[in-house]
Design a protein that fits this description.
Elements lengths: L39 H4 L7 H22 L1
Length: 73
């Protein structure tokens, strides 16, 4: 019996996939990642979080990204 590691990872719907863009630098003032605008707590164990929690986090990101852009600019 062959164990395939991919079989253990449940595929995520695109709408709930991680918003990570590989720019992993935290803004000291807000605690948000400059790439995806999530907090460390939101980033950790993303794939294990319930869908409802991931949806709530994803819904907050556009506002955070706007705020980060204002702070930058």
């Amino acid at each position: 019996m062959s164990l395939d590691i991919i079989s253990f990872v449940e595929p995520q719907p695109p709408s709930l996939a991680s918003p990570c863009v590989n720019v992993c630098t935290m803004d000291k003032a807000t605690g948000w990642c400059l790439g995806c605008a999530r907090t460390i707590r939101e980033i950790s164990n993303w794939s294990a979080k319930p869908a409802e929690e991931r949806q709530a986090i994803l819904a907050a990101l556009p506002t955070r990204k706007t705020e980060l852009a204002k702070r930058k600019g």
